[in-house]
Amino acid sequence: MRGKRVLGVCAVGCGVATLTACGSSTSKAASTSSGNRPASSSRPASTPSSEAPPSLAQLKKIVLQPTDLPPGRKGTPHQPDPSTAADQAALAKCVGACNTDPDIVAEANSDDFALGDARIGSSADSYRSQSDVDTDVAILHNPKARSCYDQVIKKVLATSQPAGATIESASIKLTPGSADGPANVAGTLTTTVKFSANGQQQVLLYLTSTFITGPLIEAEVDTENVGAPVPASAVNALVATVATRAAKG
C-alpha cells in the first residue's frame, strides 16, 4: 500500500509515501494500536509467518487486469517513481515509526489504465510477517498520520508539477477503516489539488488511494482525474475486485 504510481502532475493518490512502520508487534497489538508508538532508531525483526508469502505470480493475479475495466481503457506499463523510498522514509520519520519495506518479499503493479484525463492503477506487495501488515494498518489510526501525509504530499506536489504549473492548494483527507466497503479495506486517502497552468485557468485534480489487506498482503487501488473525481461507483467496483482477490491470497 505504497501509492507509488506516477501519473499526471504527481503520483496517483499522491500517496508515494503511504503505510510505513515497524513490523515487530503481535497482530492483536498492532491492529488495536492507536499508533502512539515511540520512534525507533533500529527496526526490530518481525516474526516470519509459518505460511509462505504470496509469490510475484500470485500478486500479479491480485492487481487490476485489463478485463476488470470498462472497454476503452488504455493500459501502459507502470513506471516506478525513484523518489518513493525517500518519501516513505520521510513519512515514517514524521509519524515516529520505522519502515517495513525490508520485509517485502515480492511486489506487483498493474498497468496504468487511462481514459481521457482519468487514470486508474493498482499494486500488491507480500510480506514475511502478518505483523508487518497489521502494524502498517495501525499507522492509519496514528493521530499524527493526517498531518504527516499533508507534509509529504505537499512536498511531492512541489517537486513533481509540470513546467508552468503552480500548485495553489491541496486538501487531504485520510479515512481509516472500510466504511461501507469490503471488510479488508484498511483506509482511503483522498487528495484534491488546485493548480493553474501558466498563470491561467485554475484546474482541480482529484486523487484517491484505497488501502487493502490480505494474508501477508498489502494492496492498493489508485485513481486520478482532472475536473471531477473518478466516479465512486467505478472505484468501488474495482476496489471490491482487488479486495476479493487479496483476501484469498
Silhouette: globular
The structural domain count equals 1
Helix content: 25-40%
Biggest sheet, open or closed, and with what strands and sense? 8 strands, antiparallel
Description:
- This protein is of the alpha+beta class.
- The chain has one domain (6-32, 51-248): Protein Transport Mog1p, Chain A (3-Layer(aba) Sandwich).
- 27% of the residues lie in helices and 30% in strands.
- The protein has six helices and ten strands; from the N terminus they run ββααβαβββααββββα.
- It has helices spanning 27-32, 56-62, 84-95, 130-139, 145-160, 232-248, and strands at 6-7, 10-11, 74-76, 104-109, 112-115, 118-127, 165-176, 185-197, 202-214, 217-226.
- The strands form two sheets. Strands 3, 4, 5, 6, 7, 8, 9 and 10 form an eight-stranded antiparallel sheet that branches.
- Strand 8 and strand 9 (202-214) form a beta hairpin.
- Helix 3 packs antiparallel against helix 5 (145-160).
- The longest helix has 17 residues, at 232-248.
- The radius of gyration is 17 Å and the shape is globular.
- The two termini are 15 Å apart.
Short descriptors:
Protein Transport Mog1p, Chain A; 10 strands; two-stranded antiparallel sheet; 6 helices; 30% strand; alpha+beta; eight-stranded antiparallel β-sheet; 249 residues; disordered N terminus
Summarize this entry quickly.
The protein is built from six helices and ten strands, in the order ββααβαβββααββββα. It has 249 residues and is of the alpha+beta class.
